[in-house]
Amino acid sequence: MRGIEIKEVSKGYKDTKALDHVSVQFEDGKIYALLGRNGAGKSTMLNIISNRIFPDQGEVLVDGKPARENDQVQQNMYLMSEQTLYPAGMKIQQAFQWSKEFYPKFDMEYAMELARMFGLNTKKKVRTLSTGYKSIFKLVLALSVNVPYLFLDEPVLGLDANHREMFYRILLEKYIEEPFTIVISTHLIEEVASVIEHVVILKDGKIVKNCATEELLAGGYRISGKKEMVDIWSQGEDVIGTEMLGTMKTAYVIGSSKEKWKKAPEELEVAKLDLQKMFIQMTNR
Ligand SMILES: Nc1ncnc2c1ncn2[C@@H]1O[C@H](COP(=O)(O)OP(=O)(O)OP(=O)(O)O)[C@@H](O)[C@H]1O
């Protein structure tokens, strides 16, 4: 099978279960969002896939082959994360050259072109870059390595709105030209909502949702009105959260049918849910 398969992976630290028997697949050529609140286990998962840390249990297969300490498999994936793996005294251009050693498909010309577009001075040392430009440096690398599996852990940290927009546009252009697997872990959900095809939500080390974005969005509604009425109409629905304000209630439902809500009485206020609101409801309990 092509793609990444995470099988029954667990990882614990002292009294924390960072990942608890997690199984998920990242299919070849799709764009995923890996979502979860602080400490949900996202970075742990990405670090395990890319061999930076090892699981206590379970395994990761890449195109059917074990990823653990397998250089050939690792050459097919790239994790952009908060960590900067380059010697701080190294110049940007040298770091590009270094990357080419491990990633044979690294496109130097493209990297230099991106650096120019983002205003990244390649003669500077990695150490001297501002927070935003450190992110830009890592993003340029991520966009230039040309691997089939790209993992982006909070990729736009410290970037201004223009640079964030530019990054997502370039990422998408690249994907359209030649699709590859992209897994983006971010808290800026609305910014990626239009880009992602599939959503994986982690909570306390477990997967609470794993489905196509379109499917999730299609069935998500916010139902508000008198408590009794909301209770009757939300019966049998997958209610992911509720709120009370006096005698008024709001229920958040997913996987629901559009037809049903067309028939709702006027006293009920029915609105579509966006990804951000769904995420908040699914993870705040
Ligand atoms: N090296 C470590 N030692 C001890 N605990 C750790 C370590 N790394 C992660 N953890 C714990 O494991 C849990 C999952 O952390 P992880 O960094 O994977 O979460 P995350 O979803 O990436 O969070 P965030 O959105 O805040 O980056 C947290 O409770 C965290 O404190």
From TrEMBL:
It holds the Pfam family ABC_tran. The keyword ATP-binding applies. Residues 4-229 form the ABC transporter domain. Gene3D superfamilies: P-loop containing nucleotide triphosphate hydrolases. It comes from Faecalimonas umbilicata. The keyword Nucleotide-binding applies. InterPro entries: AAA+_ATPase, ABC_transporter-like_ATP-bd, P-loop_NTPase. GO terms for molecular function: ATP binding; ATP hydrolysis activity. Keywords: ATP-binding, Nucleotide-binding. This is ABC transporter ATP-binding protein. It comes from the Bacteria.
